Amino acid sequence: MSNTEQTAHKVCWSCKGPVEASALFCETCNAIQAPGQLDHFTRFGLEHSFAVDVDAMEATYLKQQQKLHPDRFASRSGREQALSSQQAASLNEAFETLKNPVARAHYMLRLAGHEPEGGEGHTVNDPGLLMEAMEMREALDDADDKITIDAMIKDTRKQARACEKDLGAAFDSKSYDAAKKLATRLRYLMKMTEEARAKKSRLAAA
Amino acid sequence: MALLKIHEPGETPLPHEDERQIAVGIDLGTTNSVVAISNSEKPEVLRDKSGGNAIVPSVVYYGDDTPVVGEAARDQINTDASRVVSSVKRLMGRGLDDVKSVAGTLPYHVEVPEKSETENGEPMMVRLNVGNRVLTPVEVSADILRSLRTRAEESLDQPVEKAVITVPAYFDDGARTATKDAAKLAGIEVLRLVNEPTAAALAYGLDNGAEGLYAVYDLGGGTFDISLLKMQKGVFQVKATGGDAALGGDDFDHAIAEHLLAERKDGGATDDLDASDAKRLLKAARTVKESLTDQDSVEVTVPLNGKETKHSVTREQFDGMIAKLVARTTTITEQVLDDADVLPEDVKGVVLVGGSTRVPAVRKAVADLFEQEPLSDIDPDEVVALGAALQAEALTGGSDNLLLDVTPLSLGLETMGGIVEKVIDRNTPIPVAKAQEFTTYQDGQSAMMIHVVQGEREMVDQCRSLARFVLTGIPSMAAGAARIRVQFNVDADGLLTVSAREETTGTEQEVAVKPTYGINESDMATMLRDSMVHAREDMEMRVLTEARVDARRNILAVNAAMEADRALLSKEDEASINQAIANLETAMAGEDREAINDAAEALENASRPFAEARMDSRIRQALAGQNVDEVH
């Protein structure tokens, strides 16, 4: 990475002086700046690694929202209000993406130039996984008491956790094809947990 | 030279004295409304001149003179019921299709529009026939807001033009827009629309310094909301929210009214009710409901069609009548807990909001569900307005607390086959900006219909239609080759703006749509003219204030820059900048907006050489120490 990128400057809209391209506020006049092309990890001061500490990230998120949220600019000029809304929206997007492991994996794949499976024109082509998902769904259809479903939820969550660990290793070794497959598997596991929970509450309501 | 005020980035400096206008919090409820003010984080409700009730019934009487709002309007139900409008909130932002389902339960005549849409594809708003007037729900709400504004001004003895207004968390985009329109008509600038449960949590949280996960169960006159909030270090984060925009205490009244009618029928009475009878019957029903809060049974006399009947209603009977309605609230609550992956025992406290939570059966259902006694040490009728007042103070005077809210309903677009493609999921934190790409499905297709919907269902006709517009000028291409990017923006008020753009060819076309179930711009202009002589002056005052805010910020910015880079400032430039600042300050003291803007521009011109010198210097610094051939 060249030095020019690290210290790239733009013109502050308020004092017309130089301001770092990635700065949230102008260091001279304190005016809020437009969100730049910061990637989500950089926004939280994190390395590009799949393993993230969601609690620590949330603390950073809240601290930044305290400064950027439109409520902090309600009596400021229209331009500052609009910029704060953009900043808060970018921050929300970054946090929502990184805190969800599937969204985080998809985001990292795209950053590396790989389109995740399951999107437009990217069908899932993993017979083993499709078979596994079908079996899980059938088991859920057959389950009709809370204990069985709770056991299923526990099992899928355990598998999901293991899958997240494998994903971390895949990203660390830049094995993007493996990461792609694991991300799809994680997506199925999360969906199954969700459906099992929904069925549980349907049973409870009935 | 003026002393510089240095602020931490992002910390709001207190606005200048003359611009720090007073801002109130308003709970615009289905049955009752309340206005409150907060000073130094101590909110209090504003009472009428005689220091009486804080509650203003959301009832308007349209007699021959100016509309009457509140208790006095409700008293007219007995004498001139056809000119009394109540529960209008249930119609806010509603179109023909919604009203068909509730019209029968409303105690006044609703004029149903012949078509469900205007020629522009905007949904037609319902109108009410009241006496000899035809009114929109927005105008009726504006009359209520105007009365609250007057109450605040009399109580505080100064003009009130800004407010935080609360809406049910579950209010959709149309109802939010309609509420903002009503405020505009009443001459109130809405600082923020805040969700009612969030406002209630704010009132509780600040009082108790609460940390952890809290549920707010809000059952008002016409709406039910349940929200789950996480409170930590002064941040109130809404985790999940749900509800029913047409379920509340009014439905309890209807249940009792039906019970009374059924008893009369058994006694041989044949009742053919007109709107006035219905209103009187509902008034009696409400009395029964309220009495059963403290008593086990109550006697009531129903005088209709010249036949007076006596009835006795026990609490047990009442509990039976409303059991299904209460069960609906607990089912929705369970769904919200599920959404957030939270168990009832994770919830540290349950806050009760809304007059209907006084009903013992409701309290018991909530206590049973969460396995704990709910909190209710703040009056459930006042808690929302108190929270709104706190937020109004935070927005005008600065605060250490922050509300982070979410979208209550998913937002999406119609795709092939009437299927909804979700763009923003429900419970996404706001503000949010999201884009999705679509493509054409026919060769040479030059236009595309963009249909924006709100709701959780898969099919378009089961969701609420918010807006439709056509993106034209798509260059001729093979099917599937065009790339149309549709951008959704939801602001901090929860209001949506949608724009669309074709991206492949570089020809950009952008259409911004603000879904409006409120009032269109030209109608709004007419109403403002008709109803408020001061509208124009208010508008000019607002623009002038904005010009002053901008100017003051400009001066602060230039001063900060001179302080930071004094070495780059020539004597001549400093002199001309200071002169320009002095001129601008003089202009700001006056009332002429143009003069302020001209002086601001002059300041910009005077400081340009200095700004350029600062940019040059920074670029030179950045390049120093690098080889020339590294620089591209």
Automatic annotation (TrEMBL), chain A:
GO biological process terms, semicolon-separated: [2Fe-2S] cluster assembly; protein complex oligomerization; protein folding
Annotated gene: hscB
Family matches, as NCBIfam families: hscB
SMART domains: DnaJ
Entry protein name: Co-chaperone protein HscB homolog
One family name in Pfam for this protein: HSCB_C
Cited Gene3D superfamilies: DnaJ domain, HscB, C-terminal domain
Subunit structure: Interacts with HscA and stimulates its ATPase activity.
Family annotation (InterPro entries): DnaJ_domain, HscB, HscB_C_sf, HscB_oligo_C, J_dom_sf
Family: Belongs to the HscB family.
Taxonomic classification: Bacteria, Pseudomonadati, Pseudomonadota, Alphaproteobacteria, Rhodospirillales
From TrEMBL, chain B:
Keyword set includes Chaperone: yes
Keywords: ATP-binding, Chaperone, Nucleotide-binding
One of the GO biological process terms: iron-sulfur cluster assembly
Pfam family, one: HSP70
GO molecular function per UniProt: ATP binding; ATP hydrolysis activity; ATP-dependent protein folding chaperone; unfolded protein binding
Key word Disulfide bond present: no
Superkingdom: Bacteria
Family according to the record: Belongs to the heat shock protein 70 family.
HAMAP family membership: HscA
Function: Chaperone involved in the maturation of iron-sulfur cluster-containing proteins. Has a low intrinsic ATPase activity which is markedly stimulated by HscB.
NCBIfam families associated with the record: HscA, PRK05183.1
Protein name in the entry: Chaperone protein HscA homolog
